[in-house]
Amino acid sequence: MTKKKLKPASINLALSSIKFYFKEVLKKNIMGDIKAPKIEKTLPTVLTMDEIKLLLDATKNPRQRLLIELLYSSGLRVSEAVKLRVNDLDLAENMGTVRAGKGKKDRNIILSKSFVKALKIYLDDRLVESKYIFNSRDGHLTERMAQRIVNESAARAGIKKRVYCHALRSSFATHLLDAGTDIRVIQVLLGHSDISTTQRYTNVSRKQLRKVKSPLDVLKTSDKELKVLGNWID
Fold first, then answer.
1. 164 is catalytic
2. Same domain, 36 and 59
3. What is the pLDDT of residues 163-196, one digit of tens each?
4. Which residues contact 19 (CB under 8 A, 6 or more apart)?
5. Are 191 and 98 in contact (CB under 8 A)?
6. Do residue 36 and residue 107 come from a single domain?
7. Could you say which of 19, 63, 166, 200 is catalytic?
8. Based on the domain organization, do 54 and 29 belong to the same domain?
9. Does a structural domain hold residue 29?
């Protein structure tokens, strides 16, 4: 596994599969206490609002732009976005429902007004009727194709960060947090069962971090105030 340069998550998955096979199938507990490697805790990629605008401006195809707008404005997982059906949306209320999302749970989502406006034009103009918003010959757009659309748009936009579908979901959460949205509301919109998963985005909210004053700056300010006070006394 080391030679193949597998990530800790992949190694843990392999270990879990082997343990299950020996314990549940062969009824032998011979794995002992093999310690699994620690999972790397990397920060999610977050785009700035300027980068989001560049991404959208670089996407000229209306359907592809609509996909990117949905991923960013509603915070959907790519698997949820490609399977979204027209009847799952309430365009009059700017709301929608994800059916059987992660954990087989339904949840409500918000829809951007500008997205709804563009969606109505797209649905009126498309030549093929389908229950899916992003239809294809075999049903709906594949996750791989959605990832390719985002990757290619990011390349055209000249964005240097590694941009993928989930980065738009991360950006949605972080930008809501920056705007003062309660983190528990964000948790519901993202469909997280555990608040700690949502709290990952507090680690990448630069706007929130910029509000924190460095203790060195506090020290320098105090020194300056003392100097001014000393000059005034003299």
1. no
2. no
3. 999 999 999 999 999 888 999 999 999 999 888 8
4. 31
5. yes
6. no
7. 166
8. no
9. yes
